[in-house]
Design brief:
Helix content is 61%, strand content 2%. It has 382 residues and is mostly helical. It folds into two domains: 8-35 and 298-382, no CATH class; 40-290, no CATH class. A hairpin with a 5-residue loop joins β1 (325-327) and β2 (333-335). The two termini are 25 Å apart. Residues 36-176 form the DUF5009 domain.
Length: 382
């Protein structure tokens, strides 16, 4: 009989903080008025917003180690574990697909027409792919081989992006539309299925998924070490914080040759964000799980236990509400949420603060719903 997987409150806290930040930066009142830390870097570089997605994939890796670690030694269960993970991966991808399609008409032939232009990559889609690959690697490989695989992915991606000539373009480069990853996206997916804001490349594209898998494997290795029972908690924290610090520095050094870039998910970006995530988790582990400072964690744990659910619903709700239209004095119509923003925020704040206040209210709205679910022990497992 297998024991119930050990659970880290600090991991739930970290996951909740990350998904709340993800919702915050994805839902400003106005995309024209955003404080710089709440925007992605224009290209190279890393803002606080650029930490959110890699932190989540890192957490996915840690969660895999915690949820599946006790079953790994029994090889007779491997097929069952992988099939279950594949089912979850497909579910995540379909949720992302629904967000990409909605609110297109699912009732008539326009649905079939929309398939010709729907975006194939996306945030949930990348999570789904990373999750299944990281699961299989964790189940089938030793810790040393997981580390080797992670390093191989980073080195191979670096070599591809910096040495392989881009067909039809010329020498290898790291510019937005002419790098190898952009060429792969356009060639395999075609421009019709890419991110509409760019059309010629996708920030969750095919080739850049390789280092994204490495981000999750980073989390897997941290999770495996945290689970060890033969190491004192103080030793764990010391080693993890040291490794996190050194990896962050390594990412900054690699940045000099292979720039930190979220859209390309560069290898330096993996090391930099993975190192920061490791230090943050180790500090949270020391504070919350070891020293039992828990009172401040509840709002974030509430988000953390239903992370995918709230991410999906918070993305779906604006699409639904903006189907309801309100007439404006100039004769134009705007969606319900845009009307709400213009009526209750714009008149009372500066443009930047109105946009931020709206995003905070959006976060608090979902917190109330999630708190009710949490108190009733309603956890929707995707």
């Amino acid at each position: 009989m297998t024991s119930k997987p050990q659970r880290l409150l600090s991991l739930d806290f970290f996951r909740g903080l990350t998904v709340a930040a993800m919702i915050l930066v994805n839902n400003p009142g106005s995309w024209a008025h955003i404080y710089p830390p709440l925007e992605h870097a224009t290209w190279n570089g890393c803002t606080p917003t650029d930490l959110v997605f890699p932190f989540f994939l890192f957490i996915v890796g840690v969660s895999i180690a915690y949820a599946m670690g006790s079953k790994k030694s029994d090889k007779t269960t491997h097929k069952q574990i992988i099939l279950k993970a594949l089912k979850r991966s497909i579910t995540l991808y379909l949720l992302g697909f629904i967000l990409a399609m909605f609110p297109r008409n699912f009732a008539d032939f326009s649905f079939l027409e929309s398939l010709k232009t729907v975006r194939i990559p996306g945030v949930l889609q990348r999570i789904s792919v990373v999750f299944i690959f990281a699961t299989v690697i964790f189940i089938k490989m030793s810790e040393k081989n997981i580390l080797r695989t992670m390093i191989t992915l980073l080195v191979v991606y670096w070599a591809l992006m910096t040495f392989v000539p881009v067909p039809g373009v010329g020498p290898a480069n790291l510019e937005k539309e002419t790098n190898l990853a952009a060429w792969v996206d356009r060639t395999v997916l075609t421009e019709a299925h890419l991110w509409k804001a760019a059309k010629t490349w996708d920030p969750e594209g095919l080739l850049s998924t390789l280092p994204a898998i490495a981000t999750a494997l980073f989390g897997v290795l941290v999770g495996v070490y945290l689970k060890r029972k033969d190491v004192e908690p103080s030793t764990k924290i010391s080693w993890l914080f040291t490794v996190g610090f050194l990896t962050t520095i390594a990412g900054l050094i690699w940045d000099l040759q292979f720039p930190i870039n979220k859209s390309l998910w560069t290898s330096s970006y993996v090391l930099y964000t993975g190192g920061l995530a490791t230090m943050f988790l180790s500090a949270s582990y020391w504070l919350i799980d070891i020293n039992q400072y828990k009172k401040f964690t509840t709002p974030f744990v509430v988000y953390g236990v239903n992370a995918i659910t709230v991410f999906f619903l918070s993305g779906l709700m604006p699409r639904v509400l903006n189907m309801v239209k309100f007439d404006q004095p100039d004769g134009k119509q705007i969606g319900a949420l845009a009307y709400f923003y213009k009526t209750f925020f714009v008149p009372y704040f500066s443009p930047l603060n109105a946009s931020l206040a709206y995003a905070i209210v959006f976060i608090l709205f979902w917190y109330v719903i999630l708190w009710i679910m949490y108190k009733r022990n309603i956890i929707i497992k995707v």
